[in-house]
Amino acid sequence: MTTQATKVGALAVFALAAALTLAFISEGRSQDDVSEEVLRAVKIVSPEAAEASLTRSFFGQVVALETVDLSFDVSGELVVFDAPEGQFVKKGEVLAQLDLAPFERSVERAELALAQSERELDRSTKLAQSNVASQVRAEDAQTARDLADVELRDAREALQDATIRAPFDGLIAERLTATFTNIAAGTPVLRVHDMSERRIEIDVPEQLLQQVGDPSRITFTADLPALPDPVPLELAEYQAQTQAVGQSFLVSLRMPDIDLPLLIPGASATVVAEVGSASDALMLEASALLASETRTPQVMLFEAHSDDRGVVRRHDVEVMSETGTGFLIKGLPKDAEVIAAGAHLLRDGQEVRRYTGLTVEE
């Protein structure tokens, strides 16, 4: 009887131990399942994959370095107008000329008046020296001689002003009057383009320039209908005020010397502006950014300790706005993995798992 009771007790102890073991294993699995459930899944991106450049296209128009309206400084009848529209001219060529006869007569009269005043000055000086005439009369004669000399210079200058010569190598854009017209001084008669340098002008929105910051960072190229390849352009200048309509800035781009005679002011071109990412900067979406308590820009980095698990760490970065939806980021470690969204919901050092997409259990 005692032996049988001992066997029953041993079986009971064994059964209890087995039950406790199963319960412990079940509880351990249950805890693992719960731990697996509370690990937050996060979407991770690599900044290198998101690196990009900002590219925009603009309608451009070819313009000359300068466009000037030429006019006479004197009045007269226009008798020579050797300036066909669309013709290239060299610096110094005669483009227009008034009737020179009146101006030549004015020069002749001024020369005679000067000669007469010099004779009068000589006579008055001799009389003053011999005390026959006063010294004041000699001084008046000197003044009259000087005035005659000034009138002669004015007459000769007016004769020169009766002829318009090309002030530079250029292109005749427009004739603004007709031959044999009586022209008043200062009336424009001819419009000429300075073709020593050709440029392309575009209107760039204010918002885009503010996003770029430094216009010298922009690379410009032009697509011209007559050329198969894009033409590199150089930033020449831009107006430091916006246009009346559209809140845009007028940007002038310098073209290289191209042998295209018909590439004249008014010709159209498509200008492509591109801002490349800096060598030490990477592109990230705005959703990946967060701020510290001191408003320092930060991102949340993923530090993997297995294939799909790891911890997150806050990391300070330098941010520069680029497109409004993306940002140039500086200060990231090499091969960094960044939490793409929801970083503000995570705490520094928290363990997370990599989001690999939705799965369907069968």
UniProtKB/TrEMBL annotation:
Single GO cellular component term? efflux pump complex
Keyword annotations for this protein?
A: Signal
Name of the protein in its database record:
Hemolysin D
Give the record's family classification: Belongs to the membrane fusion protein (MFP) (TC 8.A.1) family.
UniProt GO molecular function: efflux transmembrane transporter activity
Q: What is the residue range of the signal peptide feature?
A: 1-25
Report which superkingdom the organism of origin falls in: Bacteria
Under InterPro entries, the record lists: RND_pump_MFP (IPR006143)
